Amino acid sequence: MSEVATLCARARVAARQLAPRDRAAKDAALSAIAEGLRARTADVLAANALDLEEARARGTSSALLDRLALDPGRVSQMANAVAQIARLSDPVGHVLFESTRPNGVHVRRVSVPLGVVAMIYEARPNVTTDASALCLKAGNAVVLRGGSEAARSNAAIHAVIADALDACGLPRDAVQMLPPGNRDAIRELLQQTETVDLAIPRGGEGLIRFVQENARVPVIAHAKGVCHLYVDAGADVEMAARIAVNAKLQRPSACNALECLLVDAKDASRVLPPVVRALIDGGCEVRGCERTRALVQGVKQYLDRVIAVRVVDGIDAALDHVARFGSGHTEAICTRDVGHAERWRHEVDAACVVVNASTRLHDGGEFGMGAEIGTATGKLHWRGTMGLQGLTTFQWVVDGDGQVRA
Amino acid sequence: MSEVATLCARARVAARQLAPRDRAAKDAALSAIAEGLRARTADVLAANALDLEEARARGTSSALLDRLALDPGRVSQMANAVAQIARLSDPVGHVLFESTRPNGVHVRRVSVPLGVVAMIYEARPNVTTDASALCLKAGNAVVLRGGSEAARSNAAIHAVIADALDACGLPRDAVQMLPPGNRDAIRELLQQTETVDLAIPRGGEGLIRFVQENARVPVIAHAKGVCHLYVDAGADVEMAARIAVNAKLQRPSACNALECLLVDAKDASRVLPPVVRALIDGGCEVRGCERTRALVQGVKQYLDRVIAVRVVDGIDAALDHVARFGSGHTEAICTRDVGHAERWRHEVDAACVVVNASTRLHDGGEFGMGAEIGTATGKLHWRGTMGLQGLTTFQWVVDGDGQVRA
Question: A172 vs chain B: nearest CA distance in angstroms?
């Protein structure tokens, strides 16, 4: 058996041992991981310093260096995030459906762990602790494959996690880490249909496409968002400007940030100038369609950090635009028309539809669900912000006293 | 665009039109399909006669001919099944989670149609109506690809369905049928990631493997079951025999039929002889392990229509056996030990775990859920008997009055 297959087989055995453990056992291990991170911050930072040194020597961009860099504050934040996951309620054992049948058999559909999750990611070392903690809390084993640029940092963090599992009597094999290297190991990991239940890629478009094209195991992709805000005729202009500015500029790098503003032609001369002005005042460069440029002076056509603006002929055209160009992530409408709001909710095919609020609210924390492993952009199994519940599956449980099929 | 890509693109457009339609519109179309099948029974039977003639000329096995053959009674059953699906409650629009956040935003997770389902199946023409009706009821478009042996029957049924959709003002493109031919068209269908949301293969192991190996779209496989019954020490022997006979013999060709009986060595001399006797009396040939053969006279080792019997050392060995040899479909225990029952529920990783009842009860009808499109043997999205609910996904709906992210 290859090294990858061996690691996955060990994770599978660990998953069987972990699945029946109760909440207290899992939470104790998470607390031990948080404590271990705090106690061994120096080890983690020393490993991170070597990663940074090598990355700098390779001429890595400052943006990537910033994502890679740890300091005592960031390690402490990682520990806090793990401790917070310990405090979330257990997603396992929930009764999702229950029925006593006429023959007396009791049928339930109960949430259970998924099994073995393969997590394939880049750069940020905090994904190592976040993903491990979320998977463990949901009763899963996890096989981690981080980016090679963070190899030493991830190995140091992994050592803390494995020791904490050991100390708490949970299988240390429940968190496996694939050694860094080229993508052949990822390709092999994605073929382990006997031992891996789910692959979650998080990173750039290239990585996600590679995973989707090479996977034989199921994949839940956390891909880019191309999010729209449609400002309806008659909308509250002040609200539209506030939402547009927040959705675009509160954190432009987030996948639920706004990429394109649509405005109904019927009301564009009233709506567009103040909304565009608010975006420009907020530091955003605006790329407008021809109709937009006719209405707003100073909107240029081809710029770098931009929001696209298009004037469309009413809600049907807006729905068509979103169906064609949207990525199915988060799509918002700003409207005072109850019927249009209802059409938006029913006719937009996206993980999250938003009426009169910012796309940036599509988030596990904002929804009160706690930490998220990402935002699923496919439709199967889980959609949108994905936390502990998305890391479980379910099983039917039939309890009888001798019933057979008639 | 190729023919396959064109059909899928048309299904995608139809799915967008279908998704917001209410229950009454969908049920009217299903009723019209049922009426159409009854009214045009002669057309369907004439097409079926040609399929049968060609199949006979090709020397098709009588078992396959029987699965292919329609008569007025079978067409009427198909119509009844569609009418029954019309009476099931709408799986779309259920609120799965709801929360009003501190900032006043109202968050819901609501069930919505999946979109476009590709159904790839063999032989039985009733799958054409069942799958179409289930997909339509859940608000989905469906692309059907039946076996070439049933091509004319399926085309006649498809004409009835398309006309019924037309007559009821639903898009006729919502049910597409790929022309029969070689597997190249299936391979192409499985690559349509832009337009197809889910592929469901139903048929022999060869077809399912082909789909899994060639799919770029998500797949929910409905594969074979290798189901076990473990008879614990101290079990009610009369109950164990009744369950074993029903699970094995009530319908041996079903995927939830029993394949292997496990008996605890501690109690095998009491349990095994009467249970095996009941199976043999029921017409089953029994293949026993060495320890079984030592306990029961007349058990042969290698026979054709068989149940395998193995004596194991207690529940741990039974759990290990099931983890290694089970297919994750349906696994039963017969026991009087409450602790062992609880371990079975928690430690068996299968779509359905059964305590003191027949594996044959794992069924949409028996669970009170109505018609099933199959039994999902994977863990993602849906598991076990899969009906309308498994043909939906969900979407987050955020309603605000101007809230932005802090």
Answer: 19
Structural domain containing residue A334: 227-361
pTM, two decimals, is 0.92
In whole angstroms, give the CA distance from residue A83 to residue B19.
Answer: 42
Question: How far is it, in rounded angstroms, from Cα B43 to Cα B36?
Answer: 11
Q: Could you tell me the CATH number of the domain that includes residue B340? A: 3.40.309.10
Q: Give me the amino acid identity at B241.
A: A
CB B376 within 8 A of CB B122: no
Same domain, B203 and B254: no
Q: Are residues A85 and A204 in the same domain?
A: yes
Distance from C-alpha of B262 to C-alpha of B274, rounded to nearest angstrom = 14
C-alpha closest to that of A48 among A106, A126, A133, A165: A126
Cα distance between residue B30 and residue B28, in whole Å? 5
Burial A74-108 (b: 16+ CB within 10 A, else e): bbeebbebbbebbebebbbeeeeeeeebeeebbbb
Both A145 and A268 in one domain: the answer is: no
What percentage of chain A carries pLDDT values higher than 70? 98
SS3 B149: helix
Using a CB-CB cut-off of 8 Å, the residues of chain B touching A391 are none
Residues B279 and B354 in one domain: yes
- H-helix or E-strand spanning residue A108: strand A106-113
Answer yes or no: is A32 within a domain: yes
Helix (H) or strand (E) holding A260: strand A258-264
- What is the rounded distance in angstroms from the CA atom of residue B314 to the CA atom of residue B262? 9
Residue B405 is nearest to which of A107, A358, A399, comparing CB atoms? A358
| Half-sphere exposure at residue B340, Cβ-oriented, CA atoms within 13 angstroms | 21
What is the distance between the alpha carbons of residues B143 and A291, in angstroms, rounded to a whole number?
40
Residue A64 vs residues A182, A212, A292: alpha-carbon distances, Å: 19, 24, 36
Q: CA of B333: which chain A residue's CA is closest?
A: A399
Question: B276 by DSSP, 3-state: which?
Answer: helix
| Segment B13-22, tens digit of pLDDT | 999 999 999 9
Kindly write down the DSSP assignment for every residue of B173-202, as one continuous string: GGEEEPPP--THHHHHHTT-TTT--EEEEE
Residue in chain A nearest B341 by alpha carbon = A399
User: DSSP code of B219?
Assistant: B
Same domain for B214 and B234, yes or no, is no
Instruction: Quote the CA–CA distance of A315 and A331 in Å, as a whole number.
Output: 13
Q: Verify that A31 and A128 share a domain, yes or no.
A: yes
Please write the tens of the pLDDT for every residue from B185-208: 999 999 999 999 999 999 888 999
B233: number of CA atoms within 13 Å, CB side?
11
**Are A170 and A5 in contact, with CB atoms under 8 Å apart?**
no
What's the Cα-to-Cα distance from B16 to each of A268, B5, B115, B182, B232, rounded to whole Å?
Answer: 27, 17, 8, 30, 53
CB contact under 8 A, B353 and A395: yes
- List of chain B residues whose C-beta atoms are within 8 Å of the C-beta of residue A101: 366-368
Each residue of B274-329: pLDDT tens digit?
999 999 999 998 988 888 888 877 665 433 467 999 999 999 999 999 999 999 99
Question: CA of B405 to nearest chain A CA: how many angstroms apart?
Answer: 6
Q: How many domains does chain A have?
A: 2
Residues B173, B125: one domain? yes
Q: How many CB pairs under 8 A join A and B?
A: 215
The ipTM (two decimal places) reads 0.92
CA B214, CA B216: separation in Å to the nearest integer? 7
Phi and psi angles of residue B225, each rounded to the nearest 5 degrees, phi first: -105, 135
Element (H, E) at B18: helix B3-18
User: B199 and B381 in contact (C-beta within 8 Å)?
Assistant: no
Query: Most B CBs within 10 Å: which of A195, A362, A395, as the mutation test of the B interface?
Result: A395
Structure tokens at B61: 């096995």
- Surface of B (33-92) touching A: CB under 8 A: none
